[in-house]
């Protein structure tokens, strides 16, 4: 009896495991690399721009990207209309990024998220980026530098993957952004993209953050400010810090490379006042000295250490105050820390959290450990 059951299971598996149940020939589909969404307020229509991957043929040495543009009352309309233009079904398994225009980010990003998150063909780990140009479409249209990468969607995904080495933005996958929207008290951020030009060619550049209050974008943080934000949320894994330090009369600019970082955020309640205590410890290496003063020796290193700690501390404090006063948006996740450490207090302040957040005091403590100076033990000097 056992042998008969075993043989029966083998026969059944032959039908279900003999190949890909949803296999489709590449000639029957169009591979999508990325999508840009704009909104025409006059016509009350969404403008959908999709980049299609053209696989490399025998005559061509590499694949390329091709753009299709369509309109619709909702993003879904535009996507379906593009199928009419391509003549084939769109395949989203390789799609990397969605670029959103400013006006959509400020007013109605929920409609886009609802469509993307609801549709089974979209991947939940796709990246969302906000365009700082007038439209999201021109990010795709103006990219002509094929030597960098012929497919802009894949290129942007590679750039965003490098965030840990840069610390100038914070990537957001669809599922993570939606999760942050659902979390009470906190607000999400999205990376920012813009076009840069050297006069001859234009290419996209990712840097800075779009700040949200709930589901509406309320402002921007530049790259310098974005790094301070990443320090607070303990998301600094690399990157550079330029410190201006002074040993004699003339200040010297010194580049420090971040090796490691650890940030601890803890709410402290004392004397009837709540203070967010932010302790940051960063390991760095001297990467570049823009002068001849010796900041590698003991005396110079101590001066550099104090100046670096002071600069980072001041930098972080300014960004926290800016977000509190101008944007009133808890992107630092202070509410989450309070809820975890002091649940009873959180219940009391939760109804008035927005007002409470604006006046919330912070205490920033920074420790910088200088671990080395790369291959040089002394600054470079010119013989007189």
From TrEMBL:
GO terms for cellular component: membrane. PROSITE patterns: PROKAR_LIPOPROTEIN. Residues 208-372 form the Spore germination GerAC-like C-terminal domain. GO terms for biological process: spore germination. The keyword Coiled coil does not apply. The keyword Lipoprotein applies. Residues 22-194 form the Spore germination protein N-terminal domain. It is found in: Membrane. Keywords: Germination, Lipoprotein, Membrane, Palmitate, Signal. Coiled coil: none annotated. It is a lipid-anchor. InterPro entries: GerAC_N, Spore_GerAC-like, Spore_GerAC-like_C, Spore_GerAC_C_sf. It holds the Pfam family Spore_GerAC_N. Belongs to the GerABKC lipoprotein family. This is Ger(X)C family spore germination protein. It comes from Crassaminicella thermophila. The lineage of its organism: Bacteria, Bacillati, Bacillota, Clostridia, Eubacteriales.
